[in-house]
DUF1707 domain-containing protein (Nocardiopsis dassonvillei), 234 residues
Amino acid sequence: MGPGGRTRSAPPDAPTRDAPRTGDRPGVSPSVGGVSEEVSPDRLRASNTDRERVLRVLREAAADGRLDLEEFEERSSLAHEARTLGELPGITADLLPAEQQPIRLDRQPVLGLFGRAERRGRWVAYPDELAVALVGRVEVDMREALLMHNHHRMTVTAVLGRVEIDVPEGVEVRMTGWSFLGRRTTTARRSELSHPPVLEIDGFSLFGVVRVRAPRRRRLLGWRRRDRRRGIGA
């Protein structure tokens, strides 16, 4: 019961506290979360980082007056007690637009049609994801994404546009498809893992650019910095 006798209602689609608990989430590498084909994304175990993403949104909403103290405490409690990813999206559903939600389990293409579109943060990368830049720009950050399969295929099309994809360390990138008066490039090296997650980039570029970027190897950068301090390569 809130001030003045108001009854507090739970956030839209708020999870129940007795949501089913599932086993620990299997992983395919330290950098990318991989999931079993038998487990749906909403039943995967939520991590402390997943819960903190939701709590950060709640703190911002309380600070600017979108939530009062009682609502903030109620939703924070739901976030702290959440055990699966499916329990988290409903807590912030009425606080941010769908594309800005801290946890995204829905399946939507990334379309930059005469404009800009992006996909970042914690989201589920389903098989046969689609990214299209038509006289526009698309940015897809997969460094915190959950891959539904160890071999992930993404159809990427750039027509008079640009698509940039960031992948975490350890992912093996395979570029397929074709290009006409455009470019399709990757900076990813062959993974050193015995069974690395594979990202296959299909599609085409027509007067456009498709670029996949991977982190630089820290050991190599450290070696170069040491050599420069010694006067080599300066």
Summary: The chain has a mean pLDDT of 82. The radius of gyration is 21 Å.
